[in-house]
User: Fold this.
Amino acid sequence: MKKLIILPFAEQDIRESTNHYAEKEIGLDKTFLKVINQAFQLILENPLSFPIIIKNIRKFVIKDFPFNIFYIAKKDTIYILAVFHMKRDPGKWKKRSNK
Assistant:
């Protein structure tokens, strides 16, 4: 079974977005987290199914919220680099892939 590791920047992305949705509408934060967890499950089940966008970084598009998940699939581990709002500057998450 593959292991999922959410890197600190991605954890911060999730936390900030969850807080934003909690302030916007009651229960929307819980819905957001549910959708994110479902996306993580799909990535774990089929990590190579989603397109490579640069080098070895893949992108999963979330349909219910305007977010993409960027990740690297290694042999036994999936590394989540970012859970990124599509209207943010993509250069910000790309810098993370160089660290």
In short: The longest strand covers residues 77-85. The chain is about 40% helix and 30% strand. Strands lie at 3-6, 52-54, 57-61, 67-73, 77-85. The longest helix spans residues 28-45.
